[in-house]
Fold:
Amino acid sequence: MNELIGGMRNALERGETLNKAKQSFINAGYKNDEVESAAQQLSQTSSFNALPQTNQNPQNPKNLLQNLPAKHLSKRFVIILIVLGALILIGAGLLGIYWERLFT
Structure:
């Protein structure tokens, strides 16, 4: 039963409708009663309400920004910080090398 619930939750997170997810499990050989029972248990969980109920295509350009995880933005920020840090270290190294020539 947990396998069915997990599979349905996964399908819903990918943007599939509940009916389409149920039909996929029935087509895969699961019994209709088991699939319906798993769907009912899934609908009773609080996380079910946050999942998409319509079949939204995640590849649609309108949905790309909505589905963009914050990780991508933070990776860009980290890369910028690394580049700035490297520039500061290079500047400090050059200043250390040429300190006597500049300030004596």
